[in-house]
Every structure is written in C-alpha cells, then in structure tokens.
Write a structure and sequence with these properties.
- The chain has 3 helices and 6 strands; from the N terminus they run αβββαβββα.
- It is α+β, with helices and mostly antiparallel strands.
- Among the domains are: 47 residues, no CATH class; 34 residues, no CATH class.
- The strands form 2 sheets. The protein has a 3-stranded antiparallel β-sheet.
- It is rod-shaped.
Amino acid sequence: MKSSFFRILVSTLVSMFCISSVMAADKPADKAAEPAVKKSDSGICHDKSSPSFANTKKFTAYATIDECVKSGGKLPAGQPAAAAAAAPIVKKSDSGICHDSKSPSYERTKKFTEFKTVDECLKSGGKLPK
C-alpha cells in the first residue's frame, strides 16, 4: 500500500512539474526585451510612459521616440511635441541664424533646418544670434 501511495505522489509531482514548465515557456518574454518605443499599426508612437504602450500588440519597434516620429509616426493626442525631441537640436532659421535650446528665439523658430550641434550649423553657413 505504501508503494502505490508513493507512486501516485511521485507521478503527481512529476505531472505538476511538467505542467509548470510548459506554462512558464508560454509566458511572454521578459519586459526588458520590449522595445523602448512602439509605433502602432495606426502610426502612433508610444513610449513606456504612454498608457497605451502595454496594449499595443501590433507595432514596429524603435529605439527612441524621435526616431519613431521621424519615420512618419505621430505622438499620442495630448502628449506635448517637446516629448518628440529626445536630444536637443540646433535650429538654423530661414534667415541663417543658428539657435540652440538656450536662445530666446528657439521656441519661436518654426521654419528651420535641423542640426545636431552649433558647430555643424555654423559650418553650413549659419551665424550665431546677436
């Protein structure tokens, strides 16, 4: 009688172990493997702070929100446009003046050519503000 009890106990434990192993394999990949930004099929860029990030299942992955927006994606409604700028840019206005983020005219400059640094802007023929 003892031997049949132990056989049943062992077979139950083995079954439970196998079931838990299969269930663990079916779980989604670790959250760390998720991309930093998801562009949904509808073209909206969601970073991890977006309420829709976890719900977005069909997407194209991007490293940054800026990269996603430059690919043609849009920010979610209500998210400020400033969030799209992952790194500060230098704006060369149509009049040829290079404005970095500290310039009083930076926010007002709407028509511009984008540069990564002030030096790049100056080398392209731009001037510093007076």
